[in-house]
């Protein structure tokens, strides 16, 4: 991991890059638009051309390119989703698909690409960069916050706040009825949203794919803690939990404890939408500028990251190959406050 220039901004000298393509890929995340805006405007400020590539790698293969002027990215800073659209593109996983994509970039004279996405998108960029001479730089954007080498990914803060708002509301009705709610949050292989959402909402149990021990805590909670029918409780379940998601776990709990009043709530895609919170807008803006700065300093195959709130460069190789680990201290915080 290397640190970028201490003064954030554009510090390039004489790069030959003239036209930069910008795309969003994988699951959308609130703040992607802020990154598009920053990358577009800093490219133009550097005297280069900015081009949007629509629908992620699918648009690269199909040659769906949109020249971007500064005014094209006006009024998008506060919008969720992505103005460039996104996709999960099977064809890009094949050498043939990537060859076609490379030909389209050459034909449009796009000589560098900024990829705003998650681990899958960076894996694709890394594979393609080994097959052709076009430099790629990544900006991490996923509500899962599961990238190695960065403390933060765009969209996570907004999604976490959406989870907290939803669970607070569910708690009102859980308390009124004396019910136990199993609430499923997103994160197919990542438990950070469930863990921090659970801590922020005072959940009684948090089940995440990174810690099997929490299933014992669920059994203790169901057996000891909730004999009293007046009591309510929240069990947060990360969708990727290996026991099978909230539905499966709740059904099992109900079978084992027929006296409990159990309900299930799957928060779903509501967690991915909405206007980005201030932190996501600010960091997306910083990362958008840092990505252009990196390309114009002849960097390639790196992801822009944040380490203790400082911009860093992380090689794609590391970012996609290493696992993002969960801070077990956070689980201890949760267990301590729940008397486990
Ligand atoms: N091993 C791979 N080789 C080539 N392209 C890939 C690879 N993994 C992912 N991609 C591309 O990146 C896209 C986004 O990846 P995905 O995992 O869906 O989302 P995210 O980038 O948010 O993790 C995929 O649809 C595919 O086009
Ligand atoms: O919207 P889809 O394609 O069903 O994907 C759902 C998945 O996307 C996410 O919201 C984000 O994942 P990625 O950032 O890796 O795309 C996961 O939390 C969730 O499991
Ligand atoms: Mg991913």
UniProtKB/TrEMBL annotation:
Q: Which transformation does this protein catalyse, written as a reaction?
A: beta-D-fructose 6-phosphate + ATP = beta-D-fructose 1,6-bisphosphate + ADP + H(+)
Per its UniProt record, the required cofactor names are: Mg(2+)
Where along this sequence does the record place binding of ATP?
Answer: 27, 88-89, 118-121
From the UniProt record, give one GO term of the biological process aspect. Answer: fructose 6-phosphate metabolic process
This protein's pathway reads:
Carbohydrate degradation; glycolysis; D-glyceraldehyde 3-phosphate and glycerone phosphate from D-glucose: step 3/4
Sorted alphabetically, which Pfam families does this protein's record hold? PFK
Task: Give the highest taxon in the source lineage.
Answer: Bacteria
Where does the UniProt entry say this protein principally localizes?
Answer: cytoplasm
PROSITE patterns linked: PHOSPHOFRUCTOKINASE
**Molecular-function annotations in GO:** 6-phosphofructokinase activity; AMP binding; ATP binding; fructose-6-phosphate binding; identical protein binding; metal ion binding; monosaccharide binding
InterPro entries on file: ATP_PFK, ATP_PFK_prok-type, PFKA_ATP_prok, Phosphofructokinase_CS, Phosphofructokinase_dom, PKF_sf
What's the EC number here?
Answer: 2.7.1.11
Q: Which GO terms describe its cellular component?
A: 6-phosphofructokinase complex
**Quick one: which residues bind ADP?**
37-41, 171, 202-204
The record's comment on protein family reads: Belongs to the phosphofructokinase type A (PFKA) family. ATP-dependent PFK group I subfamily. Prokaryotic clade 'B1' sub-subfamily.
What is this protein called in UniProt? ATP-dependent 6-phosphofructokinase
Query: What is the source species?
Result: Chlorobium luteolum (strain DSM 273 / BCRC 81028 / 2530)
Q: Which gene is the coding source of this polypeptide chain?
A: pfkA
